[in-house]
Amino acid sequence: MGSDIGGDGLRRWLLVTGNRRAVTVFLVVSLYVAMFPLSVFDQAGVNPIFGERSSVAALLNTLLSGVILLVSVVVSIASLFTSQELSPVGRQRERVDSSHEFRHETESILDREVSPVRPSAFLRAITQAVLQRAQEIRDSIDGDDHVKPADDEPDGLQSAIDSYVDRVADDTERVNQTLGSDDTDTFGMLLAALEYNYAEHLYEIRRLQSDYEDQLTDETSELIDELEDALRFFLTAREYFKSLYLEREFSNLTKDHIYVSLPTIVVVSYAILAVDLEAVTGTAFGLSYILLFAGAAYSLALTPFVVLTAYVLRVATVARNTVSSGPFILAHEEADVETKE
Q1: Which regions of the chain are under pLDDT 50?
Q2: Structure confidence by residue, pLDDT tens digits, 197-243
């Protein structure tokens, strides 16, 4: 089974799979709707608070100041991030050469003259190479005269390899269903890569190699080394594509934050003037217009913070599930591994 990044249901949608703009709208609307039960269950408390126009104006003023400050911070960080991308031609050439060198090295594992150029196809090719090496290991064991246990006792090595290949095949098929989709976006590709259990596969094959070393031929040991190399190439590619995703995610965050912040500043400024001038009066269905108006202005004023929250939640979830850069299994996966050690 693959790791379930971000949980499931609404939680997974909020943290991982949901479009960040849709998540932002959902959270802002939830903030606004949440005020209505408060006004119904606490008529004596909420309505008088929003009826104090000076308090409403002060609150909106504070939020307006926060929005302006947040815009300044985001723009400053964006400028700093952009400046880091400006480097001499020599450094840019090193980055390009390293990328080409990695592609050429991967082609030896993929048994291809030219590796795929699309990230999703590239990762799919590596996972297929992992599965192919695992199947070749099983075939090499099937063709060798290993020491067999007596009577009806099952072959420990053969059984372990068969089980390992089945797990790799299941994992590869599940992940490649996403990677093979034509409409897979950058994050969809990265999410599929995150849910591929490369660390568990690497650990298992090394454990099998250690446990049955005396039963493995040189050919099988060489195939195991190639399988380990393929898994390491997968990790390297995943980390590289993760860095590309983070760059794009930060760019989208900056753009969406600017799009939201400027209208928010204008609308909230007019809302403050409307409250001060007592332009909003009257009631409807037991709810004062000032409550509805102030709630809308309050929710709108929080929108830039919600945009930042929506993006940071997903980036933090990705970072949490890629916290290690090596073949280690963390958190809830540790218990499963410890039972095998």
Answers
A1: 1-2, 145-154, 332-340
A2: 888 888 889 888 888 888 888 888 899 999 998 888 888 888 888 88
SS3 per-residue string spanning the chain: CCCCCCCCHHHHHHHHHCCHHHHHHHHHHHHHHCHHHHHHHCHHHHHHHHHCHHHHHHHHHHHHHHHHHHHHHHHHHHHHHHHHHCCCHHHHHHHHHHHHHHHHHHHHHHCCCCCCCCHHHHHHHHHHHHHHHHHHHHHHHHCCCCCCCCCCCCCHHHHHHHHHHHHHHHHHHHHHHHHCCCCCCHHHHHHHHHCCCHHHHHHHHHHHHHHCHHHCCHHHHHHHHHHHHHHHHHHHHHHHHHHHHHHHHHHHHHHHHHHHHHHHHHHHHHHHHHHHCCCCCCEECCEEHHHHHHHHHHHHHCHHHHHHHHHHHHHHHHHHCCCCCCCCCCCCHHHHHHCCC
Domain 89-245 has CATH 1.20.140: yes
List the chain domain ranges.
Answer: 9-86+250-320, 89-245
pLDDT (0 to 100) of residue 66: 92
Residue carrying the six token digits 């509805």 = 292
